[in-house]
Amino acid sequence: MPINIIYSDPGCVVINKPSGMPSHPLFSGGHFNSSNYGKLNALDEVCKLFPEISTISIDRAEKGLVHRLDTGTSGLLMFARNVTSYKFLRNAFSKGTVKKTYVALVEGIISKPITIHYPIAHHQKNQSKMIAITEKNKYFRGKPRCAITSIFPIYISPINNNWTFVRIAIHGGCRHQIRTHLSSIGHPIVGDVLYGARHTLEIDKFYLHAESIHLPCNERKIINSLITWGKNENT
Questions:
Q1: Which CATH class is domain 1-95?
Q2: Where would a tag sit more exposed on the chain, N or C end, judged by fewer CB atoms within 10 A?
Q3: Measured between alpha carbons, how far is 181 from 137 in angstroms, rounded to an integer?
Q4: Pairing relation of β-strands 221-223 and 74-80?
């Protein structure tokens, strides 16, 4: 799985992370495991190309990583190259001032824009899963977090006429936010069996791609159209 550098400047690096590659060396439970060092993950691979990233944070599992993507999600992933940029970018992502868009292939037909406002919390029993809190789903662990996900249909998939290619914008940044929200309205991402998908095209892959990042300090909008499924969409 190659690392494609999409953008770099003295403060940061943005790559196109392949689907199936972890953002950093964690095992499936979400806890740091030193035995995973040496295995292929985006953070370690980027540090080979930009060694300064490995010195940014004393946290060995983070280094210069400023946000994360799920292992099955492909697309734009950002790393800081110095401490000043790291603090600024982590703060911007934490406050939700970074604008991001995604594209996804979802089950079912979505014919008009939808905005989902359900709070998100940890699933009551499954530690690997999150849950959208609705009238039907009232049982959860921990404190719910506010999350807003907006879905914009683009076209019906030529692969399956009961799938829709959509563009997605999020406010917040909860774990599995897009996957959880889409599942909650009956439109799970194709291949995302954890969240109820019935269909897949490739084993252990779901069709969610981080398409763009727009930083508040920078008018440059980083667009990534390196998608190997569906039609490439440029904005």
A1: alpha beta
A2: C
A3: 12
A4: unpaired
| 98-225 CATH, one of 3.90.1150.180, 3.30.43.10, 3.30.2350.10, 3.30.70.1890 | 3.30.2350.10
The residue ranges of every structural domain in the chain are 1-95, 98-225
Beta carbons of 123 and 130 less than 8 angstroms apart: yes
DSSP code string of 134-172: -SS---EEEEEE--EEEEEEEEE-SS-TTEEEEEEEEES
Whether 9 sits among the annotated catalytic residues: the reply is no
Are the C-beta atoms of 23 and 77 separated by less than 8 Å? Answer: yes
Vertex 50 angle, CA 45 and 51, to 5° = 90
pLDDT at 228: 57
Question: Any idea of the CA torsion for 101, 103, 119, 173, to the nearest 10 degrees?
Answer: -40
Q: Do domains 1-95 and 98-225 have the same CATH topology?
A: yes
Cα separation, 100 vs 213, whole angstroms:
5
| pTM reported for the whole predicted model | 0.85
- 131 neighbors 140 (Cβ within 8 angstroms): yes
Give per-residue pLDDT as tens, 53-85: 999 987 767 899 999 999 889 999 999 999 999
CA gap 166, 155 in Å, rounded = 7
> Contact 28/40 with Cβ under 8 angstroms?
no
Q: What is the pLDDT of residues 10-41, one digit of tens each?
A: 999 999 998 888 898 864 444 444 444 446 89
